[in-house]
Amino acid sequence: MKVFLSGGSGFIAAHVLDILLEHGHTVITSVRSQEKADKIKEAHPNTPASQLEFRIVKDIAQEGAFDEAIKVDGLEAVIHTASPFHFNVTDVKKDLLDPAVIGTTGILKAIKKNAPSVKRVVITSSFASIINPNKGISWTEHTYSEKDWNPITEEEAVLNPSNGYRASKTFAEKAAWEFVEKEKPNFTLSTICPPLVIGPIVHYLNSLDSLNTSNQRTANLITGKNKSEIPETGTYIWTDVRDLALAHVKAIELPEAADKRFFVTAGYFSNKEIAEIIRKNFPALEKELPAKDVKGGDYPKEGLYKYDNSRTVDVLGIKFRSLEESVVDLVKSLQAVGV
Ligand code: NDP
Description:
alpha/beta; Rossmann fold; seven-stranded parallel sheet; three-stranded mixed sheet; binds NADPH dihydro-nicotinamide-adenine-dinucleotide phosphate; Ketoreductase azaE; oxidoreductase activity, acting on the CH-OH group of donors, NAD or NADP as acceptor; NAD(P)_dehydrat-like; NAD(P)-bd_dom_sf; oxidoreductase
């Protein structure tokens, strides 16, 4: 299949790219600069130029940003991952909401207008678009699934960066489903909703300074930043980046994935468990880690919400890696880039 992948330089997209190539697909990926395109190309020396092409899309928040990039003869599928995921923002609308929402509607409009051969579109959404933050993490009687939607409003969205990020994913995913309903394009849509994503980073794009947001907590643990207290975990459910990347690829390959949301989670985790996995597997890092009796990072005593990932298992056939495998491979990859 010929597949367009937006944001090929991202943590998750780098793994999607590798699985697409392994499955024999041809990939056209958008990045923000030629420098990033060159790094990705150099890291795939055995991939023929005809199987991996690049398009420069500098800012997905600009109307029409994908109009030219998406013009690819015989394009069959699109995976849209690009969206800001960080909390270092001064203007929630400009820095988070616009790139997420305009980026998503922009790529869908561009496909409809300029790539009529596309049959399948997959968008990376998030557990952020499923969770109801008003209920707290100890909503023990509730089981989250694809049926749930975050009720966040436009007013709440701009109150702080954390609300802003969750709203950006919720509004963007809603806009995508509305687009399909109203515009009735030639393609079907699937959305992929992961909670915290951890796992190995690719060496060719990363350093400690440019580390993606969701791996930051593990980097903090191994660089001595949590020696006196482990921070609260936050969402308490996670998935491995390689399992998530495979879910994206399966969602374009399997016809039965069309018209569905997928809640892709491996299960519960806590920051304390991550620390203990590192202690067990990397004795040389002991001096950087919080001591065993340091407070914080545990599960809440009141319990946690439940989750239902059965659609991801049944339809996409995903078998989830263990937290231990994911953390060990992440730490090794961080050490490989000098963290
Ligand atoms: P990264 O920060 O590694 O990737 C984000 C990607 O989006 C990068 O390629 C980035 O380009 C691109 N991007 C961001 N803003 C713009 C913009 N204005 N114009 C063009 N490109 C832009 O994060 P992840 O890989 O973790 O995130 C990928 C997707 O997964 C996002 O949609 C995110 O919301 C979602 N997600 C991530 C989770 C996680 O825990 N990691 C959990 C749930 C969902 P550049 O690198 O050049 O800045």
